[in-house]
User: Fold this.
Amino acid sequence: MNNIVIFDTETSGLSPKTGHRIIEIGAVAMSGSEITGEFQSLIDANCDISWLATNVHGITNRMLSDEPSPFQVFSDFRDFIGDATLVAHNAQFDIRFLEFEFADLGFKLTNPSHCTLRISRKVWPHLENHKLGTVARHVGASFDGLQ
Assistant:
């Protein structure tokens, strides 16, 4: 697979339909096995972060006060991803939020996507769970902070 962007988001809650927003996005662009670019930004989405979300990712409203706006970040991210295939763990969640953020700014997200959570469930049904950290350890990768 060439021209892919592997990405992850952190959000203020669980649903964009109830006003939750993306408050951090990070991505790596790849061509074959070569990293061709990186993207990361906190986002001041001017929304309250639920205590549950803060307990998951540790991001607080105070941390976002001097960060760029959604328009700036998602305009730049749209340029970064171009027409690449998007890859995420639990992609349905991240894509739903990204589609909302893009639509809110008048953009349309048309990139194809793949979900490593779905792939891992299909390929390794015997794993005790399919959390990103479990899958990473199963394939011999180790990353600090993955559960």
Observations:
- The mean pLDDT is 94.
- The first strand starts at residue 4 and ends at 11.
- Strands lie at 4-11, 22-31, 34-42, 85-88, 113-115.
- The chain is about 35% helix and 25% strand.
